[in-house]
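Repro:
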Amino acid sequence: MSTTDEKLTKSFYDRISHSYDALADSNEHVAREKGLAALAVSEGETVLEIGYGTGHSLIALAEAVGESGQVCGVDISDGMQKVSEKRVAEAGLAERVKLSVANTPPLPFDDNTFDAVSMSFTLELFPLETIPEVLKEIRRVLKPGGRLGVVSMALTQEGEKDSFLEKTYKWMHQHFPHIVDCQPINAVGFLKEAGFEIKDENNLEIWTMPVAALVGVSPA
């Protein structure tokens, strides 16, 4: 992603940070929650969320890791950080959560830091040529045998046709990428190419558009 694209993306999410829940989360939350359930974070683990948005998943993760665990988050938007910090503080979980703002990749964390990494409607925001680099960075910061949970817009299954809404969405992304910024991707293929073993795969949909919820495991 170019510097200009990063600035446009950051500006866009800063602007919508206080209204994002009304714009998108009402449609995304079911898939996001199923993805978190499949990732199965447990007490005492150290977890990273990439693209934490307005912080709903941070709450669930912080509750799952308990007092002995730690949740870190990285997002491109200062606006999202402010919204998330407020939500986490109101939930009484601020001591378990540490949030940062940074362009990704690279990830601003040491090697072998996390037991699990979570991404919900985030991986498909990156240009296709950048996704392998993102996944390489995730493998670097995961501990051996660590888990990656991904919920993303998915490609239509082989033998099936795109719905009208799917076709419209793809057209909008092609022509107005800074408004409709994510794109359907073959998340399973990307994870396998990056060396992850797929342990869990669920095919879902939002408004007739396919969504994948995956858990991949990094080599031990």
